[in-house]
Amino acid sequence: MSYNINEKGYYGEFGGAYIPEMLYPNVEELRQNYLKVMAEPKFQKEFKQLLKDYVGRPSPLYFAKRLSKKYNTKIYLKREDLNHTGAHKINNTIGQILMAQRLGKKRIIAETGAGQHGVATATVCALMGLECIVYMGEIDIARQAPNVARMKMLGATVVPALSGSRTLKDATNEAIRDWINNPVDTHYIIGSVVGPHPYPDMVARFQAVISEEIQWQLQEQEGKTKPDYVIACVGGGSNAAGAYYHYLEDTDVKLIAIEAAGLGVDSGESAATSVLGKEGIIHGSKTLLMQTKDGQITEPYSISAGLDYPGVGPMHAHLYKSGRAQFISITDNEAMKAGLELCKLEGIIPAIESSHALAVFEQKKFKPNDVVVLSLSGRGDKDLETYINYFKL
Amino acid sequence: MMNRINQKLQEDKKLLSIYFTAGYPNLHDTETILQNLEASGVDMIEIGLPFSDPLADGPTIQASSTQALKNGMTTEVLFNQLKDVRKSVSIPLIIMGYFNPMLQYGIDAFCKKCAEIGIDGLIIPDLPVDVYNEQYKTTFEKFGLINVFLITPQTSVERIHFIDSISNGFIYMVSSASVTGSQSGFGEEQSNYFKRISNMNLKNPQIIGFGISNNETFTQATTYAKGAIIGSAFIKHLSKEGVKETDSFVKSILNKT
Ligand SMILES: Cc1ncc(COP(=O)(O)O)c(C=O)c1O
């Protein structure tokens, strides 16, 4: 079995491009060009240069000594939190802005939930001097004020999504509608491995730099390129896709995906898509999503805005269904506790999304000799207020 | 027996088709709206099955969908409301909806139910042409349902010919690069596009939709096409005037007094 995408744009039975005809020319243009453009030596050179000089890559693979001691295993943290703008999101936006330039696009649109992808998009638009419009649910605008301000400082226009539940899925709908209305000059920078083919594959390839680096960094530190486990949190699934990418077909390397259970998988306030979701179509992709039995998409809940999405990317639906990855759900409380623990043990304040991944060590036992690589997808600056309120700091 | 859509397309007149969202303004308005529209002289009706995330729709249809779902509309409820529709309505009826609710109902079961009720066709904006062709065409045909495909000003000539070749009924011509309801009149660009398509002499007649809101835009569209579809403008009318007053709306479009 293959865990990567096939030539028709599917991971197993998941993926495809379930889009209205109005989007067909845009998506088809991208589909026909993305691999060709990414293969150009000039593109690769520019992409790598920016990742190095602007983003600050390679991000360190840090052996977390005290955390390892506590859980009696060997834990390496892939420090995506040290990237410019504070998360892995920028790997993708750098790649896509270069893609947009190659395709001659003048106007950039994006959706954002917590605002991390919005900030990463606004940043690369400022870098390239391109117009930037970010759609954000009205409710998220209210609860993520600092990131709204950052986007504005970077020159982006933030447009409130007023439809539906006024959160991430509705912001995505609005971005798609904008693209329908502006089919010629606009590129849509999707923020995760979701959406119609070729987006999940393109975003995964841009994020693949994460596992590319893990391979040689682990070689330096452990004398081998393969860890026993790779662990990452999954909202749409882009940091996980990047951390898994070069290990997908190598089943010696076990993959663990962490989902947000919110208040508990059975509480009605959860975002654990693998448990609560069913196969269906969301944002142009056939995948697992949370929905009513009638096929209406439901609103998820997580304390972490970045994991608060009712679907997962088609790659992850396939990894789940095929059993290639183990899916574990972590509640708000478990994540917050694990986040604070990392602060105390390692002096690193993680994003709450990444805190979900860190909570795995209370759920699953690893052997003392296991080499466990965990994607620390972002830093906690954006979440200070949530941490403050939660711990009454 | 010939499908009602094809019979209607053979009539020597320009066709007016109206879209409304089932369950809006009130859950049980569906039958009244259908009967009133037929009585007012409408040629064909698209019954919108509401969806939580209607990607191709503008604010008016989005809001009507949200309200309809709040009112309690579901696939099952709609099918129940339509159970006896063919006792009182004889014009062609099309269900327009997004793919996910149909997928959850089961495509086979959905098509079977449509056939039992007397639905003539489906418009599913987010079901791609190739997926339909490979996976669902046989089912639709088994139940005598016409699947209507869309084209837009950006659709390539080659693709238009392909869509024409697999269509059986009419082609839904989206008037401009936009979601539903966002036009305020047609300019030269649209006229040229209408003309261009008209000159292609396609096998299937075309019906133009998106942005038709009054007699002027209806006349512009039907100068080049077999008919026109009105959605958002009718929903706005419903929200202002309620379900009883459809006659004045239809007359204003056809310019009959
Ligand atoms: C720090 C961080 N981690 C993870 C995510 C989840 O996204 P993905 O699942 O695409 O990696 C986000 C999204 O905003 C994020 O900001």
Which descriptors would you attach to this protein?
heterodimer, A: about 400 residues, alpha/beta, 4-stranded parallel β-sheet, 17 helices, 14 strands, globular, B: about 260 residues, 9-stranded parallel β-sheet, binds pyridoxal-5'-phosphate
Q: Could you write a compact summary of the structure shown?
A:
The complex is a heterodimer of chains A (393) and B (257). Chain A has 393 residues and is of the alpha/beta class. Chain A is built from 17 helices and 14 strands.
Rg of chain B over CA atoms, rounded to whole Å, is 17 Å
How would you write the strand order of the largest sheet of chain A? 3-4-14-9-10-13
Q: What class would the helix/strand composition of chain B place it in?
A: alpha/beta
Indicate the mean pLDDT of chain A: 97
Q: What does this entry look like structurally?
A:
Chain A has 17 helices and 14 strands. Chain A has helices at 24-39, 41-55, 65-71, 89-102, 116-128, 138-143, 145-153, 168-181, 199-207, 209-222, 238-244, 273-276, 314-321, 332-346, 352-358, 360-363, 384-391; strands at 10-11, 14-15, 61-63, 74-79, 107-112, 131-137, 157-161, 186-189, 229-233, 254-262, 278-282, 285-289, 325-331, 371-376. In chain A, the strands form four sheets. In chain A, strands 3-4-14-9-10-13 form a six-stranded mixed β-sheet, sandwiched between helices. In chain A, strands 7-6-5-8 form a four-stranded parallel β-sheet, with helices on both faces. In chain A, strands 1-2 form a two-stranded antiparallel ribbon. In chain A, helix 5 links the parallel strand 5 and strand 6. In chain A, helix 4 (89-102) crosses helix 5 (116-128), helix 4 (89-102) crosses helix 9 (199-207) and helix 14 (332-346) packs across helix 15 (352-358). A nine-stranded parallel β-sheet of chain B has the order 5-4-3-2-1-9-8-7-6. The A-B interface holds A 16-22, 24-25, 163-164, 169-170, 173, 176-177, 180-184, 278, 280-284, 291, 293-298 and B 51-56, 58-59, 62-63, 66, 69, 74-76, 98-105, 125-129, 131, 149-152, 154-156, 159, 174, 177-179, 182. The complex binds pyridoxal-5'-phosphate. The site of pyridoxal-5'-phosphate has 21 residues of chain A, from helix 5, helix 11 and helix 15.
